[in-house]
Amino acid sequence: MNFLLENWYLFVVALVSGAMLFVPALSKSGSASVTPAQAVQKMNSEKAAVVDIRSSEDYAAGHIKGAKHVSLDQVEQQLGNVAKNKATPVLFVCATGTRAGKAVAAAKKLGYEQAQVVSGGMKAWKEAGLPLTTGAKA
Asked: Domain 31-127 - what CATH class?
């Protein structure tokens, strides 16, 4: 018993370090965002659908190849046309990644459990040097 009382701080350190091992696992399970590089991997390997929720003008000026344009207020009505299979990953992109969270919430409400935000949005996509395409609504 003396050992426990004299070395209580060692037990605290052990408990804290053990808990820290589980924190990343907990946060990943509910993760609703991917980096631009992870988005490319999902697009290539899992055939993820990309939904651009920026304005029509911003979309036409430059967007991710294959991305479909759906305004944020139309996500619930039009998502079924973009991603018919609810098991398919759906990646939402906006200008900086902040507004896309609302689209993810709407998609998850509709049953799209693999809906995620491209973190940093188009700003991060451009900074990563990833390709864009221009043109009218896809």
From this structure: alpha beta
